[in-house]
Structures are given as structure tokens and as C-alpha cells.
Specification:
alpha/beta, seven-stranded mixed β-sheet, five-stranded parallel β-sheet, 20 strands
Length: 427
């Protein structure tokens, strides 16, 4: 597959280790990194990609040339990782990190720590009005981790998938909201929620992506990116069976992301011949709370019949959110219009949390004090029934579910999605 950036992509196989190595070698050989301070942004464990492989390949090609080499997890508002979790993320033990990768610094982004943030500019109301096609008109202060001024070069390394807020993940999203402060994080997410997930997800040209790329352009640091496209269901690299890559692109974040998004659209969208009244969406273990497990709803909502139900099946999930649970338990899960038509009551809550709420609840109406979601969202998780009802979601005891009852019934309007959350389903 021809690409304008340095890289390779294919729809019918995975790239070989030699091909990936060659792309990394050529990319780093052509980038002026000598004696520079390099900051690498990487995903956390809620994204599928062969990060240990990329960590090894990049360290081998950078460590001997650069002045410093930091790897920062672009957490957004996800919980910080422990040292053990960080080591596991890049595929090393603490001893191996010290012995084999002594120059690598593994860092969390701490979005709520003012001393770690720096203001890089202001998104003016006139710009917001233009970029969002008139949906918003307000000044937005743009802050991000001060590491962007403490380093000379910024390298983004992460996968691209259909995404409910921005259209496709990856690229400059690893900066905003990946290592951003709360103001721009909240604005970014609420803009996507107002447009609605089904209108955004799986589309390249969205107002939210326009915002992300615009504010990334405010940074003075030079930016490059490796954008990865994972081949669904195929493992290949390393002893741990790391996910196989169908695509790897290097260039500016905008160009590399664009090529990766084109390939992701082909590989990560599954078209069905009908809609379904019952969808059992089984969450993988990498989603450890509903904040991330909600992706099971986002990716299947487009194929849910109006009046149907999406069952998020995740016995391992025992809490709403490690970071935002207390707020969600106050406001509950509601449709977009529920908030918009009561904006004075809810506008003081973090907009990013309101966005999560509407994305999980899905499309619906709010008229004359009555909320009518198009789809019933039911939790079959480790979260107890009282909490489910409190946050305005349905409940099902996961112990009563026999997955076999949901298999091979597509002609009856029943679908089981085995590893929900990354593949987008459309009719």
C-alpha cells in the first residue's frame, strides 16, 4: 500500500519483524536527534499494540545518540501507573530496565498536578467558532505537561483505532488530551459529546480532530509520530505474543496519522447486514473500569436497534471509575439532551465526565422531564445492582449469563461481540 509518509501498510497480512525494524531504522536515521532531549509519548495498557517491541527498537536506535530519553504515558485522565505496571507496559522487569535500558526514564502524565503543567496558548473564541462550525464560541486555555518545554524533540508512538470522541485515535491526540491539562481535556471531550459519538466515530474529518491538530500546532517543540495499525486478532512478536501490525507509518503526527487512519478504517470496521435487538459486548481484561469498558457500548451502538439493549459483559470490572467515580455517582449516566436542556444545573461538573456519561448512555431524547434513551445499556459486571441503578444503568447478574445462548443467533437479532471496544460495528 503506497503512503506519503515513511512506512508500510497492508490489509491481508501482518508486517514482519524485519519490516518493522527497517521502518524504525530508516526513520531514526533520517531524524536529527543527536545530543537532543527526546520525549516519547506512549499509550497505557488500555490500547492494543506491540509497545514492548517498539520500546526495544527505539531505545536501540536512540539511546546512544540522544542526551536524554524519556517515555511518558499519555494518560489523559486515566489513573497513574505504578512502577511495576510501567515496566510491564514496555515489557521489562525492573532489573532489565536498569541493566539494559539505563537511559530510559518512564514517566506518568499527572493531569491534575499544576506544577507539572505549562500554558502554551489560548484557543480564541473566534477560532473555536470557526473550527467547531459554530457549535462553541469561547476562549479555551491550552495547557499541557511541561515536559514539552523541557525537551527538544517529541515522538508519538501509538495505535490508531476508530474513536468515539475524535473519529480516530492516535496522532496529536497523544498530546491533547494525552498529556494535557483539564481545561482542554474537558472542552475536547464535550465537543465530541455534543456532536455525538455515532456522528464522530470512524470519521477522519471531525471538528474535534481539527481542534486537536490546531492546538498541537501551538507547541514550539518539533513533533514526529509512529502511528501503528494493529491487525485484529493476530499476534506475532516476542515471547508474549504481542499484537501483530498491519501498518506502521512515520512522519509528522498529522501525515502519519492520516495514513494510519485510512488503513484503520478498512481493518477496524466490521459491517453487518442488519441491526440487533440484543448485543452482548464482552470486554477484554485491559478495560479495568467502566470509564474504559464503556467502549463496548461506543463501538456497538451503531448496530443496536432502537429499543434494543447492549449488555456490557465484564465480570472483572468492579468499579465505575478509579478517577471520576464519585462525580459519576452524583450525576449518573444520561443522554446528551438531558444535560443540554438542563445546562445551568450541570455545566459546573467536569465536561469530560459529562461526555463520558452521554457516550455510555447513547443517543436519546429529553422532553418534558422524561428521558428516553434509544438503547438500554445493561451492566453484567462486578458492579453491584444498587450502584448500577444509582447511576441510571440496567443491571444483570453476570453469573446468570451463559454466553452460548448469545452465539450463532445473528439471524434472530442477537449478537455476541467477543472482544468489544476496538472494532467499530456498522450496518
Amino acid at each position: 500500500m503506497k503512503t506519503a509518509t515513511l512506512g508500510l501498510g497492508t490489509i491481508d497480512r501482518i508486517l514482519t519483524h524485519a519490516e518493522i525494524t527497517s521502518v524504525c531504522t530508516d526513520a531514526m536515521a533520517g531524524w536529527h536527534v543527536d545530543n537532543k532531549r527526546v520525549l516519547v509519548l506512549i499509550p497505557d495498557a488500555t490500547r492494543t499494540c506491540p509497545l514492548p517491541l517498539m520500546f526495544r527498537l527505539l531505545y536501540e536506535r536512540l539511546a546512544h545518540r540522544v542526551r536524554s530519553l524519556s517515555f511518558m504515558v499519555a494518560l489523559g485522565t486515566h489513573p497513574a501507573l505504578t512502577d511495576e505496571e510501567m515496566n510491564r507496559l514496555v515489557g521489562v522487569s525492573a532489573g532489565e530496565l536498569r541493566a539494559n535500558y539505563p537511559k530510559a526514564r518512564l514517566l506518568n502524565h499527572r493531569w491534575k498536578t499544576p506544577g507539572e503543567l505549562v500554558t502554551v496558548g489560548t484557543l480564541k473564541a473566534s477560532e473555536v467558532d470557526r473550527i467547531t462550525d459554530g457549535l462553541f464560541k469561547m476562549d479555551v486555555t491550552v495547557t499541557c505537561n511541561k515536559a514539552v518545554i523541557d525537551n527538544d524533540l517529541l515522538l508519538i508512538v501509538g495505535p490508531v483505532f476508530p474513536h468515539e470522541v475524535v473519529g480516530f485515535s492516535g496522532g496529536n491526540k497523544y498530546i491533547f488530551p494525552g498529556i494535557a491539562g483539564q481545561g482542554i481535556i474537558d472542552f475536547f471531550h464535550w465537543l465530541g459529546a455534543v456532536i455525538t459519538s455515532p456522528s464522530v466515530i470512524g470519521n477522519k474529518l471531525t471538528p474535534v480532530r481539527a481542534v486537536v491538530d490546531h492546538v498541537a500546532g501551538m507547541l514550539s517543540i518539533e513533533r514526529k509520530a509512529f502511528c501503528l495499525v494493529v491487525k485484529p486478532g493476530e499476534n506475532s512478536y516476542g515471547n508474549g505474543g504481542e499484537p501483530g501490525l498491519a501498518g506502521l507509518y512515520f512522519g509528522t503526527p498529522e501525515a502519519a496519522w492520516s495514513d494510519a487512519a485510512d488503513l484503520s478504517a478498512k481493518l477496524h470496521t466490521r459491517y453487518m447486514g442488519r441491526k440487533f435487538h440484543t448485543i452482548l459486548a464482552s470486554a477484554p481484561a485491559m478495560y479495568d473500569d467502566l470509564w474504559t469498558g464503556g467502549k463496548c457500548m461506543y463501538k456497538t451502538e451503531p448496530i443496536a436497534e432502537r429499543g434494543g439493549r447492549v449488555i456490557i459483559h465484564a465480570p472483572h470490572i468492579t468499579e465505575i471509575s478509579r478517577t471520576h467515580g464519585d462525580i459519576i455517582e452524583k450525576i449518573g449516566y444520561h443522554t446528551r439532551d438531558f444535560f443540554l436542556k438542563q445546562w445551568e444545573r450541570y455545566k459546573h461538573y467536569p465536561w469530560g465526565v459529562l461526555a463520558h456519561s452521554t457516550h455510555v448512555k447513547g443517543l436519546g431524547t429529553y422532553e418534558n422531564g422524561i428521558e428516553k434513551p434509544h438503547v438500554e445499556v445493561i451492566l453484567a459486571t462486578g458492579i453491584n445492582e444498587k450502584v448500577c441503578r444509582q447511576v441510571n444503568l440496567g443491571y444483570m447478574d453476570h453469573r446468570t449469563i451463559d454466553i452460548r445462548e448469545f452465539e450463532c443467533r445473528e439471524n434472530e437479532g442477537v449478537l455476541h461481540v467477543k472482544k468489544a471496544g476496538e472494532i467499530l460495528y456498522r450496518v
